[in-house]
Amino acid sequence: MNKARSLYRSLLKEFGHQHWWPADSQYEVVVGALLTQNTSWKNVEKAISNLKKAKALSPKKILKMKKRSLESLIKPSGFYRQKAERLKALTKRYIEVIERGAKPSREDFLSVKGVGKETADSILLYAFDIPFFVIDAYTKRFCARHKLFKGKDYDDYREYFEKNLPREMKLYKEYHALIVEWGKRY
DNA sequence: GGCCAGGACACCA
DNA sequence: TGGTGTCATGGC
Questions:
Q1: Within chain A, where are the H helices?
Q2: Which nucleotide is at minimal CA–C1' distance from A111?
Q3: Which nucleotides of B are covered by protein (CB under 7 A)?
Q4: Which one of A63, A121, A135, A147 has the fewest beta carbons within 10 angstroms of its own beta carbon?
Q5: Structural contact between residues A62 and A88, judged by C-beta atoms closer than 8 angstroms
Q6: Does the predicted TM-score (pTM) go above 0.90?
Q7: Distance A153 CA to C2 C1' (A)
Q8: Among all strands, which nt has the closest C1' to A79 (CA)?
Q9: Strand C, CB < 7 A, residues 63-102 of A
């Protein structure tokens, strides 16, 4: 067993299953992926709760809603002006992807302003069940701390994990969630 | 009361 | 390509 796999086993043993991504629908995952950018999940929960209470957590509602109204609902998640703008753009793309029917590509979401690699991969993995390994600041710290891998940029790290793990969507989901949990503690 | 969160982008050299 | 400023709220 390689080091990436054995570290996964220790994380799972220490923290247990994380049950990511907590959401009632696929679209809710997409919304959460954008709102959680550089933001604690607690604050994202408040924003999503506001959207639910306003019965606005659907692609059509979000698109139809006035930007000011959307801003006030997602305010707790911070950066609310740009997030309102970007959430609308992402939602528009999401609808196109769904209506097209075919499996979404990374570029489908990466090309949306405000969606970078981590957010795009989070959407592909957690909303669409497509095995892209999600990299974040914790992951890089995790690699350094355990002398697992030293990469140059995002895709270096992603490829490292994807080459050293079986290509299983459920494993990718759990591993990333565990690394985040690890990162909060250490 | 300061620090930072489940980032991304613009602008600069 | 690398470094820095900006966006903003709420929890600890």
A1: 3-15, 26-35, 41-53, 59-64, 67-74, 80-100, 106-110, 117-122, 137-145, 154-164, 169-185
A2: B8
A3: 4-10
A4: A147
A5: yes
A6: yes
A7: 12
A8: C8
A9: 75-76, 78-83
